[in-house]
Design goal:
A hairpin with a 2-residue loop joins strand 4 (131-141) and strand 5. The N and C termini lie far apart (58 Å). Helices cover 11% and strands 51% of the residues. The relative contact order is 0.14. The protein has a 16-stranded antiparallel β-barrel with strand order 1-2-3-4-5-6-7-8-9-11-12-15-16-17-18-19. A 3-stranded antiparallel β-sheet has the order 10-13-14, with no helix packed on it. With 413 residues, the chain is mainly beta. It has one domain (39-410): Porin. It is globular.
């Protein structure tokens, strides 16, 4: 019966996707017909613009000499020939307002919105797991925009979509920082290349709703110019709320989480680009429920910190090579990223990924070889013997960028 329900649920989602696709097709065919037979339109009576874009990605993955499927990071983590996701982004913008509806289907998409699975009420049927971004915005001026809804994080160098990422696999800093937020975010253009963001949000990655009655604050200050950019990002807040009297004995809640993140990049020449991401996340001790009541839980702040350097060199118009070098450290027990720790609860890992990108229009092939080497023996070898400090893996991915379709909507004369 459970299997039958799962099949029916999957069939329902597939049907919804199919209907959505037909709806998009009908809208754009209708738009094309209207443009063909009506009188010429001019930008002066432009009402808004509707657009559809997206991507699809698939890959092959092999972990060499170990039984683990992949390094302890997000995405590119399934063995053999595997699926990434299909990503469809529908957006509409007018002079001052707009919406973005960003949908993901497939393992990569589900991993990106993993905490949306908490929304599994009968009315939702797990549909929140296909929403990567869903927000509306209002432009009060060219320098001030207010956004409300679910949006990908402004922290870090890498992103969920494989399109902007040079490497197909992802770093530890990206995998254990935030993916997405739901909340209210204000974007400011300050002039002379400076910009800023300020946000109040749900606990990190709880995108469908807020189950904890606590909120996270976020901010960014950045500077952009033609050949480079730099951003300083901060988030802080209690991620799991306070213990309630109805919680079971020995329940533990964490205190505030603070993450400070620096991202920068610059074109050192027409062919060579250098990027960097440095981040620190510290989680304070919180509360514990005991037979005598709720008390403060005494422990040291724990978390992670690290730095990643990105090198990219354009060999030709269609071929580029890149090297990602990362040092990732966990302290006081960490966040479970590496999986093995010394007596003090510390551990570190060095990750080096060499990738190439071959592009032909929207078609991109990404072969890469990756080495993860840690201070602790956390990788299980495929043959008999002790665990390993080092893991080698190989990926070859194909990422296809779907050509963007847009239609300008004009007011009737």
């Amino acid at each position: 019966m459970l299997q039958k329900k799962q099949i029916m649920k999957t069939t329902s989602i597939t049907y919804q996707v199919f209907v959505l696709f037909l709806l998009f097709q009908a809208v754009f065919l209708s738009a094309q017909n209207e443009t063909t037979f009506n009188e010429p339109k001019y930008e002066s009576n432009l009402v808004g613009e509707l657009s559809l874009s997206g991507s699809a990605d698939v890959y092959f993955h092999n972990a060499i000499g170990t039984i683990e499927d992949a390094p302890h990071t997000s995405f590119a983590n399934l063995p053999g020939f595997s699926l990434g996701m299909i990503n469809l982004i529908l957006s509409y913008k007018s002079n001052k307002t707009g919406i973005v509806a960003d949908m993901v289907y497939g393992p990569r998409g589900e991993d990106a919105v993993f905490k949306a699975s908490h929304f599994n009420k009968s009315a939702g049927n797990g549909s929140a797991r296909i929403v990567n971004q869903l927000y509306v915005y209002y432009k009060f001026s060219d320098d001030f925009t207010l956004n409300l809804g679910q949006f990908n994080t402004f922290l870090g160098y890498e992103v969920i979509s494989p399109i902007p990422n040079f490497h197909y696999s992802t770093s530890y800093l990206f995998s254990y920082g935030p993916f997405s937020h739901t909340g209210l975010r204000a974007d400011f253009t300050l002039g002379s290349g400076w910009l800023a963001k300020v946000a109040v949000m749900n606990p990190t990655d709880f995108t469908a709703y807020n189950p904890f009655e606590t909120y996270t604050l976020g901010a960014q200050i950045g500077f952009e110019k033609d050949d480079g950019s730099i951003y300083l990002n901060v988030t802080t807040g209690d991620q799991d709320g306070r213990i309630k009297k109805t919680d079971s004995i020995n329940s533990i809640s964490t205190g505030k989480t603070l993450q400070v993140d620096l991202t920068a990049g610059i074109d050192l020449s027409k062919k060579y680009y250098l990027g960097v991401n440095a981040s620190y996340q510290g989680i304070q001790s919180g509360e514990v429920s005991t037979p005598d009541g709720i008390t403060n839980y005494t422990s040291d702040t724990y978390g992670f910190y690290g730095v990643v350097v990105y090198h990219k060199y354009a060999v030709s118009e269609t071929l580029a090579v890149g090297l990602r070098a990362e040092l990732f450290n966990e302290f006081e027990g960490g966040v479970g990223a590496i999986g093995g720790y010394n007596e003090e609860g510390d551990s570190n890992i060095t990750e080096i990924t060499l990738s190439a990108n071959y592009t032909d229009g929207g078609f991109r092939v990404i072969p890469e070889i990756r080495m993860d080497s840690g201070s602790e023996r956390t990788f299980t070898r495929s043959s008999n013997g002790p665990a390993l400090n080092t893991m080698m893996s190989f990926n070859i991915a194909v990422v296809y960028t779907i050509p963007s379709i847009s239609y300008k909507i004009h007011a009737k004369n």
